[in-house]
């Protein structure tokens, strides 16, 4: 029994770990060549960087957000970087017409879809919960319900291609964290919906993967503006973050944790006497 516990069990563990990790496919940028990918929230931040990585890999990219002028610049840069093709659809994710148009463009102009990257996020505040139920509802529409609507509309195409759904979430969607109450609620909802849907896909043998991405603090302009003065932890680079999301989606991983180690500790706020300014929330909410 002693010998079994001391030697055999650890050796068996090592053998199993080796089999598990060596059977996992390695990522190669060529895996994305010619693939048809929608990236939402691609006018800025991590979404914009994902579009550029995909372009370098030779994918057909279809980007979306509200600001058409910014999207136009992203499309031009994607073409210059070598995208198979680059297109845009501008509009708010609060509007079902945007969802419909995206799916239609993918169907008619790309002939289908291989990967749906759901990344957009509505503006919120980094402050104590202010009791504004209307804001929670608006944020749920943008950050959660539109993800559900996009998934439902794109599913027939993804089933045909055996494609992938990539959902960008946050550590604040796995663990409660102060000053992000409405945002955090929308991210927890994503986990509930997509982790359950993944189980159903498995039972029904639906060959569409779902990758949930759990991100820590990333150095995008909007995040830095809202939280850089407040958090002790240093942000991770958006370019590397974007690449890790694409890798995880391509390899059909269930979850991607990006910069998990660095966000675990320290997570305390700066300045012992600091408390959120009453204006901070208003400044970043629209
Ligand atoms: N940065 C961070 O520290 C972290 C980010 N994340 C997650 O990563 C993802 C990307 O974050 P990040 O790059 O920082 O975000 P940004 O604020 O830089 O980008 C948000 C994107 O969403 C678009 N968007 C906003 N509102 C709407 C709307 N109503 N309809 C359609 N599009 C909209 C914006 O474009 P436009 O205004 O033109 O519509 C923009 O393209 C998000 O899901 C976020 O929750 C997770 C953890 C940490
Ligand atoms: C629970 C702990 C183990 C880890 C805590 C990590 C904390 C520090 C990390 C994890 C997720 C991060 C937030 C996030 O997801 C998105 C945004 C939106 C942006 O516009 C403003 C910044 C904000 C609020 C981030 C702030 C920092 C958060 C709370």
UniProtKB/TrEMBL annotation:
Its EC number is 1.1.1.146, 1.1.1.201. It catalyses: 7-oxocholesterol + NADPH + H(+) = 7beta-hydroxycholesterol + NADP(+); glycochenodeoxycholate + NADP(+) = 7-oxoglycolithocholate + NADPH + H(+); an 11beta-hydroxysteroid + NADP(+) = an 11-oxosteroid + NADPH + H(+); taurochenodeoxycholate + NADP(+) = 7-oxotaurolithocholate + NADPH + H(+). SUPFAM superfamilies: NAD(P)-binding Rossmann-fold domains. The keyword Transport does not apply. It is found in: Endoplasmic reticulum membrane. One of its GO terms (biological process) is steroid catabolic process. It is a single-pass type II membrane protein. It comes from the Eukaryota. The keyword Cytoplasm does not apply. Keywords: Endoplasmic reticulum, Membrane, Oxidoreductase, Transmembrane, Transmembrane helix. InterPro entries: 11-beta-HSD, NAD(P)-bd_dom_sf, Sc_DH/Rdtase_CS, SDR_fam. GO terms for molecular function: 11-beta-hydroxysteroid dehydrogenase (NADP+) activity; 7-beta-hydroxysteroid dehydrogenase (NADP+) activity; steroid binding. It holds the Pfam family adh_short. It is an enzyme of class 1 (oxidoreductase). Its main location: endoplasmic reticulum. One of its GO terms (cellular component) is endoplasmic reticulum membrane. Belongs to the short-chain dehydrogenases/reductases (SDR) family. PANTHER family: 11-BETA-HYDROXYSTEROID DEHYDROGENASE 1, HYDROXYSTEROID (11-BETA) DEHYDROGENASE 1-LIKE B-RELATED. Homodimer. This is 11-beta-hydroxysteroid dehydrogenase 1. It comes from Pavo cristatus (Indian peafowl).
